[in-house]
Design a protein that fits this description.
Strand order of the largest sheet: 2-1-6-7
Number of domains: 2
Shape: elongated
Largest sheet: 4 strands, antiparallel
Strand content: 25-35%
Bound molecules: zinc ion
Low-confidence stretches: none
Number of helices: 2
Structural class: alpha+beta
């Protein structure tokens, strides 16, 4: 699961599953799925200065789904996190990388996120 986080307005938004641009509450940052099946996400800001305030939050899907069953003990949650960090080979979640179920990613920092090019940006973010 990936979310847009625009720290300037404090909003987090899940991208539209159909691939439309999803804007934060103030409208200065946006994301869209380029390929939702592969988890490829594109981000845009109205002003270049907002790029430092715009991040993608990555949440490990298996870890999230663990919360849908019966309530778990703290020990069970720790075990799930350790198991997931071992299983997430090739991902930033992996124990050899960030070893975390929550990621803060600058667009372009991971292979599945990028900044939109000028041609791809939403109409509201064009000069
Ligand atoms: Zn905003």
């Amino acid at each position: 699961m990936k979310l847009l986080w625009h720290a300037r307005c404090g909003d987090m938004r899940a991208p539209d599953p159909r691939g439309a641009w999803t804007f934060c509450q103030c409208g200065m940052a946006a994301v869209r799925w380029v390929d939702p099946v592969r988890g490829i996400l594109q981000a845009s800001t109205h002003l270049p200065s907002d790029r430092t305030m715009t991040r993608i939050i990555g949440l490990d899907n298996h870890y999230l789904r663990a919360g849908l069953g019966q309530p778990l003990s703290d020990e069970e949650w720790r075990e799930i996190a350790v198991d997931e960090a071992k299983a997430a080979e090739g991902y930033l979640f992996h124990e050899s990388r960030r070893n975390s179920m929550v990621l803060v990613i600058a667009p372009g920092e991971s292979r599945d996120t990028s900044w939109a090019t000028d041609d791809d940006r939403p109409e509201q973010h064009r000069p």
